Structures are given as structure tokens and as C-alpha cells.
């Protein structure tokens, strides 16, 4: 079915014409137990400000019948996801009966069969305009209304929605139950939800909240293992946000549902869904726990910013996501055990925004969004990561007290309403007493990354495309490097407002610009500071300072100002003594990536071996052991390395480590099919087939690569999770470039035929770009494909961004 994308003009006209009083939606899921049929009857009660006017309702389904105010509507006129409506009265009731069998692609709804026990699970995820795929509605964010759901589902299934059910009764005739839910608050169509299946449910009562946690039956031991931590994080987040926003989450029920094959998470009001890859099959490392905590805090922040107060139109989508990302880090640093979260963010995540913002894919944080499809094209690192970095800079610019006061004003004024960015900035201006119009324009309407250098006691700012420098509130830390340690000399704050800003600094051999990481800018250190920071990063006491050195090194790789060998050596030195759990895994990941992907083929083996030598020492550090063994498994190069791994795997019967060792051996040409089969048979993970695919992906043979390729692009058999990205990087081994060359060009062809919802398509696009393996010929083809308008905009943006990084990798290999 070809669907029209709602335009901003159409949405504004419909919003002016209509006001929706309520949705009463009856969903029938009984056709999903053994089949693919989803049915719904949507009753929409609404008013029209111009009686006699006409409009359309969104419904991308097979429409069986529709009535408007009791009169039949011609459903044969339905086309492109729209059903035209006849002349409207002042008060209207529209009833639409419809069904769909499109329940296997993740477009609005996904039916999944667990491979271990054949149980069926169903989830819905409706952003941005997928609600129309499962019931009729006016599918735009500013036509908010209460939703009341009645769900008929197989008797063995549990149903979750946006609140607690009012009643659950047996169906009169079928082997089914009928779940009835009360009215939701006034919500946008994209944040309501219905999930169902034979879920395992756990409930906990804390602080006046009724907390629910759900997973599929095959993952019950994993959920139970991590339940206390999930409960603690949920309690911490609800308490912190409720107090800081002066607006406690306004309903008692808060559910979190871990579902199969969801590439991310969705902030449904009171009923968040996560891909169940967040239920790590092996006890998670500190970094994995931190990632999951960030998901929990991010989606929870949306309850206020996005659900309670919602953007008028999708041009402010960035603000929803940037705010939730910023608030997640803020909340974790203040309210959870992850007190060094800002250091983790800088070391592990911020690089992705610099990569895109320095590339031809750069775009302003906010921009004109002519239709809904355009909104999702910018669902990227600029929206999430640069966006939250800019909010972090705003906190520094106006002060945290004013920032919080502005938020409290915002939520109080606009609860359950729709807003634009101007509404939020007005609240911040009142709270801070500052005119923020120039700040807003400079940071949100201009693309590109400022580059800040410290030259002759001046902060010098280079901009993109001849723009004026943005205002930067940043700190500089100075250290005396004359002794055996780096001794702090002073730390000062500066407001940068032009191309050159004089600074008065004490003498010192290391000057860290943007200490504390308060702004979003690439930094070029002076020559002495660069040498000192790379050689002595391990001597900096503050984890955030050490993270800043690693991040600056990453920026300099992109700028072409440092060689991969120097960055890899610096990180390897740092890892020999790194003790902060917030940094161990980000440093391991960056060191492995630079040695493996950025370094030239002639240097990579030695750099990987040196990293493995350093990591062997970390294996003896209890808090770092698990992460160190995983990196050692990816870089093992000598018999001594393998001895450490084999002893660890035997000691703990660690299936995860055994899989990782099998991947590395396969990459080195040692593929043992029987050993892989035994691992697969012993692994209880319902998605263990992914681990087998990773072993095949690493092997330097056309046959194994073809099998993985088919799983991605023919059978669509790769479950969506963060492991999808790992599988992609395993496929594109830099040392196998000649073997992989034909596949690089096939990747560009596959982009024309991708299926599934945006989250899952986006994962595949990112995972399967040949970042370490593409050559100059592929790079030229990818850059040309980025201008192919027959590709969706999201794919073109990812091509531009990743092609830029690939070009810098190829350049860095020549340094």
C-alpha cells in the first residue's frame, strides 16, 4: 500500500478545523494467535469549527465499513492511507471498522514467534504516524485526545496498555479475554500502546507507584536476575524527575515491557517498550548496565517532555529526543550509581555527533519539516547527541537553577498541551533574565561544528561555511607537566563570543580546552599540550578530564591532525592504569576501533597485539575483568593471549566469552563448525542464532559471508537490537577488504529494497555500511548514491555521514 505523508500545511489546516474529544478503540487480537490478522473498530468523537467542511481520517488498513454520524461512508474512496469524509457537522462521531495482515514487518505492529517455545508476542510502536496502520485516527501530534481501549486477546495472553485495566473478563463465545482500559489523559496518537502475549509479569509497589516489568517466557531468568536493579533505577528516575520538574508523574501505574525484535525503545505513556536485547543474556558489564539505565531514564523523561507536553509539529522532534537524552545523563549523574555519566557520555557517545556534524550530512538541529516522512530522516546523532550537548551548553550558559526553574514553568503552563520551541525558550528567558534569541539561532539554526584552538593566549574559533562563531561558555584547565605528575594549576571559565577571545591563563605544560565538556566544539590543542595529553592522559585525576583527552584525540582523527598509531598508543597506555568503571569500556572500545579500523593494514596487527597485552593486566582487576576479557577476545594475537582466554572461559563456563573467542578464531581462519554447533545447542538464549551468524560473519570466505548477507537482506532474519551493529562490524573486517569489495557495492543496491519499520531499517543501514572495509572506489559510489533521490532521506544522510568517516579513515591510514 502506497501511503501519503501528512504535510505540515495539511496538519495545520486539519488542526484548525477539528478538535478531537475522544477515541474509543476496540482491538481484536485473536487473529494473531495462529495467523496475521489484526482488527480494530475506532470510534472518534470530534467537533468541526466549520460545519459543512470536509477532511480525511488516516487509516492505512483494509477498511470494511465506516459511518459518520450514523450514515454510511463510501469506503471504496480510501486510498494512500486516507479515507475522505463527507461534509462534517458541528459535532461528529466517526466509526471505522478495519483490519490488516501487515503484522510481520514492524510497521506500527509486530507479531513475533519465539523460536525456543513457539509462543507469540505482539507489540505496537506508533511514532511518527504508524497509528493509522492499526486503527483509524487523526494521526498528528497536536490533535490530542483521551483514548479508551477495549482489547480482545487469546485467553493465555496478558495485555498492556497506557494504564491499569478496569476489567478483564472472559469473552462470551471465544477462548479469549476482554481487557477494558480507562480513558488515558489527553495524548497524541503516537504515544498510546497495546501489547499482548503470554508475558511474564512482575509487579512492585514503591513510593506510591505500581511498577510493572514484563518479558517473554524464555527470558524470565534474565529479568529476575536484574529485577532489583531495574526497580531501583525506575524508583530513582521517577523520584528525581518528579522533584526536579515539580510535577510528579501523574498516574500510579508505570509499566516497562521488554519485547522481541524492537530496535530501540518507545516512550508510550505509562507503558514503555524496550527491545529485549536490553535484558542481557550474560550478566552485563558496567557499561551495558549504564546503557540500559540511560534507556530507562531517557524514556522516562519523555513522560514529561514529549508525552505530557508535546511538540506542535515534527520540526521540534529534535527537542523531544535531545531533551530526553540530556535528562537521562543528568538524572543518572545526580540520582543513580552512575555518578560519572557525563564522562561516559563524552568518551562513548559524543563522537557520533562530531562525525555527522563535520560531514556533508550535517544539518541544523532544527529545520523545516514539510511532511512526516521528512521528520524521520533526521532521526540521527545530530538530533540526539548534538542536541543534548547543546542543551548541556545552555545549562552552562544560564545556570542549572535557571534551567530547572524554566522547566518547571514549562510543565506547569503546558501540561497535556502542544508547544513550539519558542514556548520553551520563553520560559528559559524568564527564568534566566537573558534574551536567548541570538543563542537559539546560533546553536539551532546553523549546521556544523566550531573548531576551537588556543593560540597565543587567545581562543580562536573556526566555523563551518563562513558562519559567525557561536557563543561558547567553556572552561580551561591548566596543569604543570614539569614533574612526574600532572599537577593542577588552575581552572577558569570563559564566555566566547567572537572569532578571537583573549584569555589570561597561568603557565603550564598542559592546557585542556573545554574542560568539563560544557560545550559542543572540536578542540585543536597547542603542540605541547597535544604531546603531553597523549603521553600522560593516565596522570589526570578527574575521569572527565581523561575522557576529554580521548574525545579530543577522536576529533583530531576526523580533522586529520593525528595518526591512528599515536591515538591507539595513548589509549593503550591509559588502559594499563584506568580504574574508573565509567571509562574502562569506552576506552577499550575506542582503542580497539582505532587499532582495528583506523590503522593501516601494516600497522594494525601490532597495535592490536599491544592492546591485548595491556588488557591482560585489566583481567586481574575485578570490576574490569569481564570487559577486558571481551576486548582480549577481539584482539588476541599470541599464544599467551589465548591461554588467558581459555583459562577464563573454562573457569566460568562463560558462553558469551566462548562465542567471542569463536568469532576471533573464525576471523583468523579457524572456523570449527562442530564447536559452533555445540555452542548453539548449549546456549539457552532465544536469539543465540545471532551468535552463530557472528562467527560466520568474521570468517574470510565468500560462502559464510553470503549466509550472513541472506540473513540481513533476503530473509530479514536478524533480530533488531544493539547486537545488530556488532554483527555488521564483524562482517566488515578491515583485513578482508579484497574479499569484501563486491559486497560493498551490493550494500548500495540493497538500500533500494529494505523492508520493515524505520527503527529496524535504520539499524540495518548503519550496521552494514562497510566502514572499515570500503575502498576509494566504493567511497565514490557511496557519495554518488547519497544524491540518489530514489533512496529514502534517512539512508542518504547515513551514506553522507559514514562516507565522510570512511574518507577520514582512508586519509588517516596514510599519515
Automatic annotation (TrEMBL):
Question: Entry's InterPro entries?
Answer: Aminopeptidase_N-like_N (IPR045357), Aminopeptidase_N-like_N_sf (IPR042097), ERAP1-like_C_dom (IPR024571), Pept_M1_aminopeptidase (IPR012778), Peptidase_M1 (IPR001930), Peptidase_M1_aminopeptidases (IPR050344), Peptidase_M1_dom (IPR014782), Peptidase_M4/M1_CTD_sf (IPR027268)
Q: What cofactors does this protein use?
A: Zn(2+)
* Assigned GO CC terms: cytoplasm; extracellular space; membrane
Out of the domains of life, which is the source? Bacteria
Instruction: Kindly name one Pfam family recorded for this protein.
Output: ERAP1_C
Please give the SUPFAM superfamilies that the UniProt record associates with this protein: Leukotriene A4 hydrolase N-terminal domain, Metalloproteases ('zincins'), catalytic domain
Single biological process term from Gene Ontology = peptide catabolic process
Per UniProt, which keywords does this protein have?
Answer: Aminopeptidase, Hydrolase, Metal-binding, Metalloprotease, Protease, Zinc
What broad class of enzyme is this? hydrolase
Query: Which stretches are annotated as coiled coil?
Result: none
Family affiliation:
Belongs to the peptidase M1 family.
Q: What is this protein called?
A: Aminopeptidase N
Tell me the organism: Nocardioides cavernae
